[in-house]
Design brief:
The structure holds 2 protein chains of 2 kinds. Chain A is mainly β. Helix content of chain A is about 0%, strand content about 55%. Chain B is an all-beta fold. Classes of the chains: A mainly beta, B mainly beta.
Chain lengths: ~110, ~110
């Protein structure tokens, strides 16, 4: 079945450093979504990418969707302590069902 | 907005008993609701997809007789864990959609079976 792999599993950075998490799907996706889960909280929707090669920005966050619609990345510029949490990508096929990646847990040292 | 609530937020039950978890979309009608399970420091695993008025679609490996889902209305879905065992202890999260893509997640229910 469809699988979504996400790396790295953990990332520790110094505040101000950049951070990137990568997501790869075993099959072509109709769209990919990114969520953030704070410790003890629930996933919160960040963004959805639909078009091949799409790039979207939200302040310091940059999201990319690969040309083949099988991979995606989230890049955070100049991390802050408020960026701490686990970032999940989730791929969707034609059914609307989301398959979540394993998540990347970001720790930011002040 | 799009707010999803879950009740209870946490529950402790004895082995062999059943537990019902409610998921409500508070300010929108949800075309579809999803139930996920999340173990500590792990990802969300989709258990089932629930549409109002029809039977839930369960993912492979999820026992439908053990995890009963009832989607009574466009704003309410329930998950009942029947004859719970300690290995059922987990964080159960529901989500609801009002459009084709974006899912809105509830705060989750932490179940502990003793």
């Amino acid at each position: 079945g469809q699988q979504v792999m996400q790396i790295p599993q953990y990332q520790h950075v110094q505040e101000g450093e950049d951070f990137t998490t990568y997501c790869n799907s075993s099959t072509t996706l109709s769209n990919i979504q990114w969520y953030k889960q704070r410790p003890g909280g629930h996933p919160v929707f960040l963004i959805q990418l639909v078009k091949s090669g799409e790039v979207k920005k939200q302040k310091r966050l940059t999201f990319q969707f690969g040309e083949a619609k099988k991979n995606s990345s989230l890049h955070i510029t100049a991390t802050q302590t408020t960026d701490v949490g686990t970032y999940f990508c989730a791929g969707s096929g034609n059914t609307g069902k989301l398959i979540f990646g394993q998540g990347t847990t970001l720790q930011v040292k002040p | 907005g799009a707010v999803v609530s879950q009740h209870p937020s946490w529950v402790i039950c004895k082995s062999g008993t059943s537990v019902k978890i409610e998921c409500r979309s508070l300010d929108f009608q949800a075309t579809t609701m999803f139930w996920y399970r999340q173990f500590p420091k792990q990802s969300l695993m989709l258990m089932a997809t629930s549409n109002e008025g029809s039977k839930a679609t369960y993912e492979q490996g999820v026992e439908k007789d053990k995890f009963l889902i009832n989607h009574a209305s466009l704003t309410l879905s329930t998950l009942t864990v029947t004859s719970a065992h300690p290995e059922d202890s987990s964080f159960y999260i529901c989500s609801a959609t009002k459009g084709p893509y974006e899912q809105y997640f509830g705060p989750g229910t932490r179940l502990t079976v003793t």
